[in-house]
């Protein structure tokens, strides 16, 4: 018989300060496997595993892992890039709605701006495969000239801000073909995006 888990007092602070965003998960992963891996960092109180299907039929899996104490976050971040079910795991700190990202970019909208792309052969499919591991993509806009040829930059819009921030952290200066691409949070002049309040509802429990 399985022993009942010992109850642990949850730290009196917002859930967002005790939560990490995990992406690049394999489609076969389940909540139990995620809990087993992250329990070594501290008591896990909730896991939100999100699985979606894209237009191309490719799966997209990511998760939010909530701990009982904020001190577990630093330990969880050490698991970034570690292998999990044969794939490198991407772990980043959850970004609070309306708060600055924990990197050099001061805004946290849901769209990233990608520049210095290879002009001659980059495609929307390549960009989708590259940016897909970090969260659900709503739109990819590869900017082209009047002849239909790519101009070397694109916009990737995610479902939520955490995905955009993780993409910036992991892919800025990534080598694509002969070039090192630049990835930054998009902040068009006069167009400040507001997040949907429903995007960051962290609720429920493991039962």
Description:
By secondary structure, the protein is an alpha+beta fold. The protein is 16% helix and 30% strand. The protein is built from 4 helices and 12 strands. The protein has helices at 31-38, 72-77, 124-131, 161-171; strands at 19-23, 44-53, 59-67, 83-84, 87-88, 90-93, 111-115, 137-144, 150-158, 175-176, 179-180, 182-185. The strands form 4 sheets. A 4-stranded antiparallel beta sheet has the order 2-3-1-6, with helices on both faces. A 4-stranded antiparallel beta sheet has the order 8-9-7-12, with helices on one face. A hairpin with a 2-residue loop joins strand 10 (175-176) and strand 11 (179-180). The longest helix has 11 residues, at 161-171. The relative contact order is 0.18. Mean pLDDT is 78; it is low at 97-108 and 189-207.
> In which range does the helix fraction lie?
10-25%
Number of distinct beta strands: 12
Oligomer: single chain
What string, H for helix and E for strand, traces the elements in order? Answer: EHEEHEEEEHEEHEEE
Task: Report mean pLDDT, rounded to a whole number.
Answer: 78
Structural class by sheet pairing and helices? alpha+beta
SS element count, helices: 4
- Rg, Å, rounded: 18 Å
Principal-axis shape: elongated
- C-alpha termini separation: 18 Å
What is the secondary structure topology, with strand pairs?
Blueprint: E1 19-23, H1 31-38, E2 44-53, E3 59-67, H2 72-77, E4 83-84, E5 87-88, E6 90-93, E7 111-115, H3 124-131, E8 137-144, E9 150-158, H4 161-171, E10 175-176, E11 179-180, E12 182-185
Antiparallel strand pairs: 1-3, 1-6, 2-3, 4-5, 7-9, 7-12, 8-9, 10-11
């Amino acid at each position: 018989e399985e022993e009942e888990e010992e109850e642990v007092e949850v730290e009196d602070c917002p859930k967002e300060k005790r939560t990490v965003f995990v992406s690049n998960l394999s489609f076969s992963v389940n909540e139990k496997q995620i809990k087993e891996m992250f329990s070594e960092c501290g008591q896990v109180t909730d896991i939100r595993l999100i699985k979606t299907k894209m237009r191309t039929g490719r799966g997209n899996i990511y998760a939010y892992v909530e701990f009982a104490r904020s001190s577990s976050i630093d330990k969880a971040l050490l698991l970034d890039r570690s292998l999990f079910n044969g794939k490198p795991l991407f772990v980043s700190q959850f970004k609070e709605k309306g708060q600055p990202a924990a990197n050099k970019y001061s805004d946290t909208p849901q769209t990233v701006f990608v520049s210095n792309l290879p002009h001659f052969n980059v495609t929307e499919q390549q960009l989708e495969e590259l940016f897909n591991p970090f969260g659900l993509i709503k739109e990819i806009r590869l900017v082209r000239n009047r002849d239909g040829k790519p101009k070397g930059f694109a916009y990737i819009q995610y479902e939520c801000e955490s995905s955009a921030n993780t993409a910036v952290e992991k892919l800025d200066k990534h080598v694509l073909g002969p070039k090192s691409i630049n990835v930054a949070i998009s902040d068009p002049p006069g167009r400040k995006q507001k997040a949907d309040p429903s995007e960051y509802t962290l609720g429920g429990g493991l039962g």
